[in-house]
Amino acid sequence: MREINLIVIHCSATRSDRNITAQDINAAHKVRGFSSWGYHYYIRKNGKVEPMRSVDEVGAHARGYNAKSIGVCYEGGLDTNGKPADTRTLSQQIALHALVSNLLKEHSGCKVVGHRDLSPDKNYNGIIDPWERVKECPCFSVLDESWE
Asked: Is the peptide bond before 51 cis (omega within 30 degrees of 0)?
């Protein structure tokens, strides 16, 4: 089993009025040159958690952090106009919290962050300010959530 010290939350960066399956994610990741889907888990709008890559396998979801992290993605992240927004359904929120809570029990000592929180700290103040974000993913503040 590999060492895990980070759980990275992502959104699929897809419009809330569209349905994107795990197989759609897999196809998109293969087009990008991945061997298969890059995430370890995918959470559909109805709250269904779909396992993707085995946690024992290094993911392809956060460059520079994949070796020691688990990638969790939820369906959505863009409003119906294609703008970044917290589009998580109540079912997704419940499923995400339950999944992350269980992962933290299995991998004690992990830190939970959003993909955007891994952007470079350009002004070296110890905070990833909104203007420093490479992307908005996952379109809500992971750091403000209580995961345990």
From this structure: no
